[in-house]
Design a protein that fits this description.
- This protein has no helices and eleven strands.
- With 122 residues, it is mainly β.
- Strands 2, 4, 5, 6, 9, 10 and 11 form a seven-stranded mixed β-sheet that branches.
- It is elongated, with a radius of gyration of 14 Å.
């Protein structure tokens, strides 16, 4: 069983910053991609940023230049540094990991965190 635990959310004013963390634990041999998604009220869940094991990050256009994703492979942890926050960034943020449970074979599974609320006040 794999668990992803997010932390760092909360309430911040427009223009402020927050740093989200997500730590994965459990039956993991290695983690491929790790990513952050968000879901605002009444909207579908969307990709915010994703980072490969080789530290290559990709971002949604709406957060480019404001958010930075990073990871520590040894700690199975991913962070999302969010700067210049806007009210439209308000959402529940979810961490996702694509991982290999075994050292052999090609099986890749996905795990999601429970979500953490980020609220940006105007």
């Amino acid at each position: 069983q794999v668990q992803l635990v997010e932390s760092g959310g909360g309430l911040v004013q427009t223009g402020g910053s927050l740093r989200l963390s997500c730590a994965a634990s459990g039956s993991i041999f290695s983690i491929n991609d790790m990513g952050w998604y968000r879901q605002a009220p009444g909207k579908q869940r969307e990709l915010v940023a994703i980072i490969s094991r080789g530290d290559s990050g990709n971002y949604a256009d709406s957060v480019k230049g404001r958010f930075t994703i990073s990871r520590d492979n040894a700690k199975n942890t991913v962070w999302l540094q969010m700067n210049s926050l806007k009210p439209e960034d308000t959402a529940v943020y979810y961490c996702k990991a694509a991982y290999k449970p075994y050292s052999y074979g090609y099986l890749i599974l996905e795990a999601w965190g429970q979500g953490i609320l980020v609220t940006v006040s105007s």
